[in-house]
């Protein structure tokens, strides 16, 4: 049998990216096609309307357009492209007289690059590859900024605002750093002319903090508004029991949870309180800053049963504060060069007699280094 030798066929490399070039000059389209046909899937059209139709039919990774074209300029074309294809790499080819249009493009929708004619093939390919690589890396890496923005918007939806608290008790404030690093949350509501406040901490379970804040807020609304429990210890136990059941399958992600419940009676100046691994602080009618401490052990979803917390009650309360532990542990710099500073609670003793709005400003100014603050202040 005779073997027929055939010259091996050279396989054409698979082109990874598709580039669309828009220019009203046919000669420019031919030059571009010839220059880059070995590197990319090159598509060419001679006007903006055809470019928009091409984008509907083809998956395009990069679009580069001439600015000066009849009927639709390059900037006008990209202004329509970007909202529909926000991940596409976009570039404009311009003359020196088009700088005003480039400024408009940058301000309106952003450009990956603008290039001034005449273009150099190697330089242009380097710009294409750099922009495409950057866009590919952005597509696979975690969207940190998007996640952070989502957390902020979700917190705004879940957590009540300062205005909500002022609607119940006008002389009050909330200090809260709304970011992904803050594990604290809070809830409050009014029933029978008394205000119930919950203050809670997911500790290291920051990934579950949004789910936890949402669930605890829902449970508290059910218990306070629909339930019959009137003691803080019973409310707290119900919340812990519901959290333990709800997050049983994620206990490894939420190993511990701190919670305090207080019922404020503004008419009688009394506070009822229960807590696990949390304390609240208050001024009494003798202008003394005091502390109410709950159960000292944190609530562990795996190892612990529901703790047998007690209801504590104090009277003669003028102001009450719910403060995150990282704030309590802060040292406030001193204006006196002979001392390094004072503890946060020592600093708080100077707040007596000040309106809550003034206190909020002073506290925020002093704790500029803390990025996970959470504090509620309420005047009874």
TrEMBL record:
PROSITE patterns: RESPONSE_REGULATORY. Residues 18-132 form the Response regulatory domain. Keywords: Phosphoprotein. SMART domains: REC (SM00448). The modification 4-aspartylphosphate is found at residue 66. Pfam families: Response_reg (PF00072). InterPro entries: Bact_response_regulator, CheY-like_superfamily, Sig_transdc_resp-reg_receiver. Signal peptide: none annotated. SUPFAM superfamilies: CheY-like. GO terms for biological process: phosphorelay signal transduction system. Transmembrane segments: none annotated. PANTHER family: STRESS RESPONSE REGULATOR PROTEIN 1, TWO-COMPONENT RESPONSE REGULATOR-RELATED. This is Response regulator receiver domain-containing protein. It comes from Reichenbachiella agariperforans.
